[in-house]
Please model this.
Amino acid sequence: MATRRSKQRERILQALQATDSHPTAEWIYQKLKPEIPNLSLGTVYRNLAILQEQGFVQKMPLGTTDRFEGNITPHYHLVCERCGRVADIEIPMYAEINEKASTMSSFKINRHRIDFFGICEKCQNKTKK
Ligand SMILES: [Zn+2]
Ligand SMILES: [Zn+2]
Model:
């Protein structure tokens, strides 16, 4: 059965792949709204869920909001505690930790996540002035 990927979903994926800012659904909605006037925030959420299920998009729950990205290879993140900016950090994945965690628990571990929290460059420069 062929699944037809809707135009809107296509644009949502493109918008995500064109940025490395790990945006929220709201950001994507605001960005595409001028171009797709009948777009709703609910549609954006629904399509993001489908894209995630299909493996095109990665969801990153952060605090009370979900951030999304088109980079689906496993990687760690930097999170600015002041402005909420999220960036990728190129640091080797610590693969053995999954096995360790599964030995120490009754969980079958699928993945793990590491977020480094701190103050981004922009915010550091703001306080220096
Ligand atoms: Zn910042
Ligand atoms: Zn990322």
